[in-house]
Design brief:
Shape: elongated
Number of helices: 18
Strand content: under 5%
CATH architecture of the largest domain: Up-down Bundle
Radius of gyration: 49 Å
Distance between the termini: 167 Å
Largest sheet: 6 strands, parallel
Helix content: 55-70%
Length: 557
């Protein structure tokens, strides 16, 4: 109501003003005052929200400063309520209400596990065989018929050589939702018939999609040309369901081993056995895989047993060649020692001691060379069907031979120099007892790898016992030997003993330290052989007869 009264009053005032002052012309002198009055009228109408009736006045004065000021004032007045509400919230903030609790999850109704349908699994395998135009394998049919979790095809039960098409059919069958197979064992088929691309593609699909989408838990493959890229593909496709993986003789090289080392902790937390033996990998790649497995076990994860035998062929051949040289040296030097002893007319005890000394060294070097040659032969072996080549067992004679050499080295010195009999019996008894223990003791089940692939601080019990027995022998016979041999020969004997100690310590190390241990052992044995020859055998040369006196010479006083 007030608004309308104000509008009527403003209109009356404007009409009176227009009546008193007629519309402007070019000759009108007071243009500024008229524009100001029109601006006031237009500002009032604009404030009221109504358009002006006089259309001729609006274009002239719409940009007048007074009209612009009125409009800015209107906008400021419109913002006052907003400013008031903002100040009110700032002074008296509303209490923050806690968010509503999330709804409780509704338990899904328990569903019964799917029942295995042998007919559907056999139909899926039949469709796969028809798709790839191959005949059904008897071993696969038996596993699917009885709901076996392990599918183990073979060349004998297939009627034809197992190749790429058969592999695709088997993988297609075990990846079908009707199959419950969780393991695929291909050790009874010739993996050399597979192509690299087909084996990598089919086995990676099986690792990811078998067992109704959960993936394989066990995969064994021997002698297939998988290659480094195929191994990387398998390591990427494997699921946490995988518990054992055997890729023996698949030529995965260093890149494949590095891929599995990276996947051990991230993608394969349940893996308990990894067999990558005979893959022509370097020593450094083998050590990286071993360290990754040990790091996962040390961090609270599941322990993983890694099999790496037959990889470092160059190292095994170097160790075998070093001790083969020792066999040749003592096989020729031993008969020479016996010949010299018989020529000089030494007694039977001295000759027997030299025979035992030479025979023990030949036996020791031959046992060590045979062990390393067996490792190298395993690395180069081709899989023979059925099954796969097994790693050679660690030789008991190789572990017992160092103690036998210790007893045999002490035997000539005790016989020639007639050392204390009780001390000699104690030294021989301790060394022979250690030799018997090593022969009767089974190889440790926690580390069946050869010493060249050991990682970390690992000291075999026989090595510690050998160092203890050697220290006892040195402390019991050092002073008598020095008095009997002299300083020069005793220094050579002590240097050979120190080389044997250094070899026992380096033998515990992995890799090149093991090869260095063999070289140190050979050098120490050579020093001891020189002392035996010069200070024992040749020391008992018969004295030269006295020179005849010239006639007429007086006899010596």
């Amino acid at each position: 109501m007030v608004r309308r009264v104000w509008l009527v009053a403003a209109a009356a005032a404007a009409a009176a003003e227009l009546h008193a002052n007629p519309p402007l012309t070019a000759a009108t002198p007071n243009r500024t005052r008229v524009h100001a009055d029109a601006a006031l009228l237009l500002a009032g109408l604009d404030w009221a929200g109504e358009a002006p009736d006089n259309a001729t006045v609006a274009p002239i004065i719409r940009r007048h400063p007074l009209v612009a000021a009125f409009r800015r004032t209107k906008r400021l007045v419109g913002r006052v309520p907003k400013l008031y509400r903002w100040l009110t919230r700032l002074v008296n903030p509303r209490p923050v209400e806690p968010p509503p609790p999330p709804p409780e999850p509704v338990a899904a109704p328990a569903t019964a596990p799917p029942v295995y349908d042998a007919g559907a699994a056999l139909d899926a395998y039949a469709r796969s065989c028809a798709r790839y135009a191959v005949s059904a394998n008897g071993a696969v049919l038996g596993a699917l018929r009885f709901g076996g979790v392990c599918v183990k095809p073979s060349d004998e039960s297939g009627g034809a050589p197992f190749g790429d098409a058969d592999l695709l059919a088997v993988v297609d069958a075990i990846c079908d939702p009707a199959s419950v197979a969780r393991a695929l064992d291909l050790t009874r088929v010739d993996g050399a018939r597979f192509t690299q691309a087909c084996a990598a593609r089919a086995l990676s699909h099986a690792l990811a999609k078998a067992d109704r989408g959960r993936g394989l838990a066990y995969l064994a493959l021997v002698g297939a040309p998988l290659g480094p890229r195929g191994a990387e593909r398998l390591a990427t496709a494997a699921t946490p369901q995988l518990r054992a993986l055997r890729l023996q003789g698949c030529d995965v090289r260093d890149a494949g081993l590095d891929a599995f080392a990276q996947a051990l902790d991230a993608r394969l937390p349940q893996l308990e056995r990894l067999d990558v033996s005979r893959n022509r990998a370097s020593l450094h790649a083998c050590k990286r895989v071993k360290k990754a497995a040990k790091a996962r076990g040390a961090n609270g994860g599941k322990k993983c047993r890694v099999e790496l035998r037959g990889n470092c062929l160059a190292l095994e051949m170097a160790c075998a060649a070093t001790h083969a040289a020792g066999v040749a040296a003592f096989a020729t030097g031993g008969p020479y020692l016996l010949h010299e002893a018989k020529r000089l007319g030494l007694d039977g005890a001295c000759v027997r001691s030299l025979a035992v000394y030479a025979s023990a060294h030949v036996f020791y070097f031959a046992a060590s060379a045979q062990t390393h040659l067996a490792e190298a032969r395993f690395g180069r072996a081709r899989p023979a069907l059925p099954g796969a080549p097994r790693p050679p067992p660690r030789s008991r004679w190789d572990r017992a031979a160092p103690a036998l050499v210790l007893a045999a080295t002490h035997y000539p010195f005790a016989a020639f120099l007639q050392l204390d009999a009780a001390t000699s019996r104690r030294v021989h008894g301790a060394a022979l007892a250690l030799c018997a223990v090593c022969l009767g003791r089974e190889p440790p089940g926690v580390d069946r790898d050869p010493p060249s692939l050991r990682v970390g601080k690992y000291a075999p019990v026989e090595t510690l016992a050998l160092l203890f027995v050697g220290s006892f022998a040195a402390s019991a016979t050092a002073l008598p030997l020095r008095r009997a041999l002299g300083d020069a020969a005793f220094r050579s004997l002590a240097a050979g003993a120190l080389l044997h100690v250094a070899a026992a310590i380096c033998h515990v190390a992995a890799g090149a330290g093991h090869a260095a241990a063999h070289a140190l052992t050979l050098t120490g044995a050579a020093l001891h052989a020189m002392v035996v020859l010069k200070s024992l055998v040749w020391h008992f040369l018969p004295a030269a007869p006295p020179a005849p006196r010239p006639p007429g010479a007086a006899p010596p006083v």
